[in-house]
Amino acid sequence: MDERQSYNLVFLPGFSMAPQVSDVSGRGVGMDVVRTNIQKLNGSIEIKSELGKGTTFVISLPLTLAILPVLIVKLGEQPFAVPLSMVREILPIVPGEVQEVGGRATMVVRGEVLPVYPLNYLIGWPQDKAPEYGVLMQTAEASFILAIDDFAGRDDAVIKSIEGFRPKGVAGVTTLANGQIVLILDIKELLGDLGDNRGVMRQQFLNGEQLVKAA
Q1: Which residues are bridge partners to 156 per DSSP?
Q2: Which of 67, 73, 95, 149 has the most crowded CB, counting CB atoms within 10 A?
Q3: pTM (2 decimals)?
Q4: What is the dihedral of CA 202, 208, 214, 215, to 10 degrees?
Q5: Bridge partner list, 108
Q6: β-strands 78-83, 143-148: how paired?
Q7: Which domains are present in the chain?
Q8: DSSP code for 161
Q9: Confidence of residue 203 (pLDDT cuts 50, 70, 90)
């Protein structure tokens, strides 16, 4: 059992570390109820703890109908929206600057080694060409570079939920000023689906010509 699994024991029904119980406390009910209700909202709760420093509970809930500043990115001619609050900067993907560390593609940005995740890899689309731009994104847990074909600026998106069937990794939809319907991506969910073995090899998303230039 690793640290993450041991922390999750507090969410088990009836789990308690209280030496004594009363009618209202110590029965291991509280955190079980918390997680159950968060999961009913299609959300998640995680625990981060460090001995002698403290514990943090990270609660993530899906986006609902709201106005959200987004960055419009493109995979081929298909636009997608990502929350602008997660975007730190946009940078070009230079083949010679893409390295492989631990079997996965990385780039160094101001001394920080960051994994590179092509957008097509995250959503399970085939790759037509090597991505030209990277969006440096930051979640509560980590920073990474989202590799894309192009981008089309920012927009203020009115988020609309998808009734009935909601594809994994999609938080909702929005309509651009030109009438085009765009999917708003749930980046945290997309990364969570990758598990612990996330990442792609360098040659997996650089085409042959770029590999020759980078050699």
Answers
A1: 69
A2: 73
A3: 0.63
A4: 100
A5: 113
A6: unpaired
A7: 3-60 (no CATH), 67-214 (2.40.50.180)
A8: -
A9: low
Residue type at 157? A
CA 140, 83, 71, 170 torsion: positive or negative? positive
Residues 152 and 80 sit within 8 Å (Cβ to Cβ): no
Give dist(CA 43, CA 168) in Å, integer.
13
Encoded tokens for 76 = 């081929």
Q: How far apart are CA 116 and CA 199, in angstroms?
A: 7
In this structure, of 24-28, 45-49, 96-100, 206-210, the range with the lowest mean pLDDT score is 206-210
> What is the residue whose two structure tokens read 């920073």?
143
Question: Residue 215: what pLDDT?
Answer: 41
Token readout for 155 is: 């927009």
In the block, tokens 């960055």 appear at 71
Instruction: Spell out the alpha helix ranges (H) of the chain.
Output: 3-7, 30-40, 119-123, 187-194, 202-205, 208-214
Reduce the DSSP state of residue 157 to 3 states and report it: strand
